[in-house]
Amino acid sequence: MKEKLKKLKNSFTGKDIVLSFQHMFAMLGSTILVPMLCGLSVPLTLMCAGIGTLIFYFITKRKVPVFLGSSFALLPCLIAVMNWPTADGGAPDLTIGSADYNQRAAVVMICVAIVGIISMLFSLIVKVVGPEKIKKLLPPVVTGPIIMLIGLTMITKMFYNNIFGQYVGNDAGPDAWKVWTSAIVTLLTIVIVNAFSKQKSFIKIIPVLIGFIVGYVYSLIISIPGIPGNPLIDFENFTNGTLFGVDKIVIFQQADKIWGYFGPEGLGNIDTNMLVSGILMAAPMSLVTLMEHLGDISANSIICNKDFMKDPGLHRTILGDALSTTVSGILGGPDITTYGENSAVLAITKNFETKNIALAAVIAILMGFIVPIGNLFETIPQSVVGGASIILFGMIAGNGLRSLVDTKLDLSNTKNLLIVSITLGVGLGFAGLSLIGDVTGNNAFKVMIGDVEISALAIATIVAILLNLIIPSTKEIEEVDTSDINTVSLSQASGVEGLDVVHTEKEETNEKPKKKFYWFTFKGKPKENTEINKEENTSKEE
User: Fold this and answer.
1) Count of helix runs (H) and strand runs (E) in the chain
2) For 440-470, b where at least 16 C-beta lie within 10 A, e where not — what string?
3) What are the tens digits of pLDDT across the range 115-143?
4) What is the pTM of this model?
5) What are phi and psi of 496, to 5 degrees?
6) Strand-pair category, 515-523 with 498-506
7) DSSP letter for each residue of 102-120
8) The Cα angle at residue 162 between residues 159 and 163, in degrees rounded to 5
């Protein structure tokens, strides 16, 4: 046992630990944003993300460098359930541990677990059918633009949620100059560190982590009382008991509140209408999460130059994602999925060690377990997360474009050009309309099924797959418009000065169409070991 512990200790260096922190920070902003928006526990969500990542890590045979964080696919469902009106039509009390919270958290647990179970069935189908048939549905002409859209659609949402939305129409929010400068400082730090560090230096592979640290320190400085404008970070939260307290040391001190939904106020008090509505909203989203998963695994395969759909297998990656979501739901967290932000970190650092992802998962669990640390992360300004996201999401889009280049996709083929063009147009178009719906609060701009929004990425993925199946290949062999006799020389072939391709047309009788005839003649002197019937060659030339 001691030897195993010693081996485990020696397998992780200081470099690995710092890289793991970088991965955790990369997923942090989006992961804690989901529980903040729907009213779930942030420390618990961090724990669920870490546990889910470890489950994925072992199910995929420790071969796929992927971190799992909170998914936005179920966010409309979670918000709808958590804000379900009380019996008298009023707003529910979502204080963790209250009766209203426990009742709604129980329904959320069931909905998230069902999505995970459905995803397990998808894994079984892929196992039976085989990944090759699935990959035929997802050639580069499909996955390339979808990977691009993962980044491009997330950027639009990020600019609104993390930057403009922080001060536009929000009188209590921070001033615009503080939001923009903190985002720009974070972004520029990442760019400068990545661009000007020595190629093999340790600093060069942790630009995102350094960007978060510099951005946070800058935010603290411009939030000091006395500096004009509303602060990015409220210092009172550090002293008024909001973040710290004797009852907020470890998460188990709040176990009776966090997991109160297992009791009579939760599972013992299920609202049937709430439950049915929640399941109807959540179940179709399992297909959306599947499409997002396929896009992320395709992106990771391209970034790491490994076919993860083949080894360890697409069925394993889907199963890892599905089981992680199920466990997260049971523990009281949101649904979790593979994260594009961490794929971008892989692309920037070129470090694909899966053990760093596993260590990042352990760190996330510890951060969630120690409540003050989990609460401290909530103080990171959204603008800092936004500044880092510009380059992270941009890298994802860039890798989608890279996949088209690396596979030498022929865009002179009308089919390929149509698929790429329409997929990008549909994805960006619906993403823009969805953003308008977020800003105006008008769901008429969104594609809705009941109260559930179908994401632009899901729509674009389905459109790309269908177009690839329906549109026939229209690549035509173009012929050069020449005269009746054309000659094309291929010089320096086997010692022969050239090979003439002679082309003429001969009109046949009975009103048959003209046929084209081709023959070949050698020019020059052939090599000695080349035997050519000179008489036949001479007659052919004549």
Assistant:
1) 21, 6
2) eeeeebbbeeeebbbbbbbbbbbbbbebbee
3) 999 999 999 999 998 877 777 777 888 88
4) 0.66
5) -90, 135
6) antiparallel
7) HHHHHHHHHHHHHHHHHHH
8) 65
